[in-house]
Amino acid sequence: MTTYISDPLRDASDVFAGFLYQIDRTVQRWLDIRDDELLDLERGEDLDVIQFSVEDVPETRTLEQIKRRSTTSVSMKSTDALAAIAHFCEHRKKNPSSRLRFRFITTATLAKEQAWKHPGTAISTWQTIQREQLNDEEQKDALRWIREFLSICSAPDSVKQEIWALVEDLTKEENSGALLEVVQSFEWGFGSADYLEIESGIKQALLQTGLAENEEIAEALFERLSLFVFKRLSEPGIKRLTSTELRRTACQPTFTGRDLAFLQFTRDLREAARRIEQLPVAKSECINRRYTRDSLDYREGSMAVRILIADDDPTIRILLRRLLERHSDWRVCGEAVNGVDAVEKVEVFTPDLAI
Asked: Which CATH number is associated with domain 303-354?
């Protein structure tokens, strides 16, 4: 067989694994919530933990942004970090009466910023303020360093200029109090467990809490909870999870026929992600490309893989579309409801791939 030079832009392992990571992280948070808390899914950020307070005291909403990164490290200069700070500023502006906190969770490691001229990193310095590890003078210096560093950062492409302007306002010396509030309310979390490790931890938690009597039941209950979250994420409107719903879901005796179809889909998805993770050729070795974004042959959208989705269940079609469109170089060109419809749609849309 001749050697074929692949295009790493086609590699979708992060898309599949990232989707599983979000589901598993949500199940993990669901198991941890108390009776005075609930979870909002994909409302403020990927996952919001809402803690109810006593009368006349606003509830506390912790906005959790989940980032699975298989190879990269993150510094405050990174797009993910700057975008997260900007989004938190946006949340604060839109919800001035709410008590908001922000939690940035990633599997990536912490990197040092080249432009950072002080001890540690910009983010580790941020953390010392957030964790209240400094005296007043040390905090004043640390805050000034962060303000100066943010002032030389540019807006990520994904952040609108009017939102980035909120970050720029924080870099003004007269707004040091507002910057301190943001730093104290913003938590960084690096080196988070990936989805396979989270999956194992969830099963252990089910055994330790008594929700599962043995490993076989823990495996079945894990699938049930994952399926529930998977379906809840596909619903339009406000998506919430409560401790009461957790107990009720854990006690359900059997799966419905539609549940089994969903469950098989999630099993296939997990298996696909595992196989991709185990490929012998590392992504870093895939450096040769037929096209690049700087080449004359590249045109916006010309490298997109056009995909036709075929399934008789509209909910599964929606889930597949959402999953596939997380990959920047994939485009869903059409949907079919059965085999006959799929054949007709192939002739109409001429997709590169039908699933």
From this structure: 3.40.50.2300
